[in-house]
Each structure stands twice: as C-alpha cells, then as structure tokens.
Amino acid sequence: MLERAHWNGARWRPQEARGHYESWFLRANHPSRPLAFWIRYTIFEPRGRPGDARGELWAVAFDAERGRVVGSKQDVDIGRCAFGKSALEVTIGDATLDAEALVGGCEGQGHRFAWSMRYASDEPPLLLVDPPLYGAPLPKAKALVPAPLAVFDGWLEVDGERIPIDGWVGSQNHNWGSQHTDRYAWGQVAGFDGR
Known about the structure:
This protein has 195 residues and is mainly beta. The protein has one helix at residues 4-8, and strands at 20-29, 35-45, 54-63, 68-77, 81-83, 89-92, 95-98, 101-108, 111-120, 126-127, 141-158, 161-177.
C-alpha cells in the first residue's frame, strides 16, 4: 500500500521565484440528499514574487434542495501558516487539517463558514499518473487522491446554520504545481458501484 503521509507532504519551498500553488481539499456528499461541501486549504506564491506568498481558505456548500450554492474565500498572511513536509499537517490562520480531522472556518464574499469534522478512508491513495511523474517537471500541475472514499462526520456551519455531517462520503485530495490552473471543468465521483 502506498504511504498516505508521503503523498500528503507539502511540496512548497518558501522563497522560490518560480511560483507555486498547493492545495489540500476535502469534499463529500450527503448519502441520500442532494447536499455537498468542498473545503480547500491552499498555499499560493505568485511567480517572481515569493514575498507575496499567502495561505487561502476556501469553502463551498451545495444545497440542491434549495437551489443554493454558497461560497467563501479568505486570504491569510503566510506568517500565520505552517505546512508539514512529511505528513498532512496544515495550519492556515486558526484552521487546521491533518490525516484525521479538519477544524476551522473562513469568511468572505458576504458569507461565513465554520467546520469541525473527522474523516477516515480504508482505501489506498489513488495516483492519477505514474509515481515518478510526481517529482518530474512535467506535468506542471500534479493531482492525486490520498484518501479516496473517505467517510466524514461532524458539522459544517454556513452563515449561522449548522449542518450535521453524518456518514457523508467523499475524499481528501492534494494538488500542486508551478502554474495555477485558472479555469477548471470539474467532475467529482466518490466511487463506482462500491469501488
């Protein structure tokens, strides 16, 4: 089994002028209702401006029952951030993320989020390219799923409304590169027929 901690370690090296982005994001769906969340912990260091590096917290709640999608993003001074090199140990401001839990919140775009959840996966990491390519210059953007088919429990709060997270299924993901992807066409699937 591939080592989950190895695949979650931060690739960012401070003060590199080539630019860097790196994200650890978690997403899950309610087991029977059309509800979902996406939470992202990010490092962003603009190309040629390493002194402008910052941490970012992103959150989105999807509620198809009400036809509502709510999102928020908050920038955090890089001095209030820490990223583990050999395991999933991320701190951005007061928000934390490790291999078992995420706790924190963000505020921006007129919305306020807070969360406290535990998660676990019995599945091995899912690599999207051959392992040696994760250390190679190409592709410029790397992505993998260290914790596929993860089960989440806890709560998510959106603008003061607390949503219980009880057995929601999703994943913990990690991506990084020297060039940030400006646009995404994104589809998310937690599994196929129990796999």
